[in-house]
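Quick note —
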Amino acid sequence: MFDKVLIANRGEIAVRINRACHELGIKTVAVHSTIDSEAMHARLADESVCIGPAPARDSYLNIPAIIAAAEITNADAIHPGYGFLSENERFASIVEEHGFAFIGPTPEHIAIMGDKIRAKETMRRVGIPVVPGSDGAVESETAAEAVAREIGYPVLLKAVSGGGGRGMKIVREKEQLASAFSTARAEAQAAFGDGSLYVEKLLERPRHIEIQVLADQHGAVVHLGERDCSLQRRHQKVLEEAPSPALNAMEREAIGSRVVRAIRTLGYRGVGTVEFLYEHGAFFFIEMNTRIQVEHPVTEMITGIDLVREQIRVAAGAPLGYEQKDIRFSGHAIECRVNAENPETFQPCPGQVTGYHTPGGLGVRVDSAVYQGYRVPPHYDSMIAKVIVHGQSRNECLMRMRRSLNEFVITGVETTIPLHLRLLANPDFANGEYDVAWLERLLSGGA
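Predicted structure written out below.
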């Protein structure tokens, strides 16, 4: 096992990793920007190193500074968390070239899954169904039009190197394609430095279902069920739950087993999330995230397996020590992402937290790095807390989440708690009848 792990991240995920390390008897090193010197993750770690000024490009994305921090503190391994450098194959390669263990998959797998085209081709080869579309990047509007004509409108234009909805455009008819292609290409180039696009069939009202997998370095692979992440705004997840109210046990086992076979064939290591669109009983692969997910706690709540702890153990060469038949699913879990944003306009609301009181009680968990007096900086993602609840049934879970959010006190900054309470009170959500576009329709008055 490692003696010391450097955590190359900030906020609640850095606190989460710090806890897992300490429970394994591992010392920790926090890195922080100048504005994060009093942040919770820097306070809780055994050591902390300032790696640059507030802008992420000068600190949390500063690879030389992170490597230098690992060297001067004699760390054994580096955990990237999520976001920032977590899916950067160059960073993973540099970490290993400098003699540190990278707590994540191989650089090769990060590179494959970071390229949407290669990811689809790879998963298709190992038996995973994909959304109909172009075989690779389309070089021109004419090529995109030919694919759209073949698979039928509506279609999606998507950035090859994209994510988070950037470089993505819906095209419902031929006349819209030229303008959408030009706009999507410009957005992709600006956001990712790569204007390459591919074409995909648009599924009108699918669910977003993701399968959590865990693999060691000795060939053992298990899946830990699915999460339903269909509540999204502008392709950003807002609320997640497990298991999905849309799937039955037979569907769950079928897609889970198929994913396990594929991951074993690929020789993947560590945690990973295989994401699908699900519509009319069919699954279509969209991407694989080669890191820990923001929403991993809902899986932990229904399986009792600490995913971050397992990440660290696997990276250290330890075997899983259990098989698929040993995985047990219990009850239901829901996670609400609490952002420092106006709940109606979604305008970020940085500032000082003047009051902070978290909910508690049976089956309630809050993952956060916020405390009373903490100043939410304007430089990073606006998520400041995750409320996760577990219940024996989905209905119990819904009631527990409502109670917990009503107990949660955050003053000094606006938050999205009122939005979550509105969602939980909606009959469609209560009945599990929603899809990836449902929240957008609700917010526009159309749901």
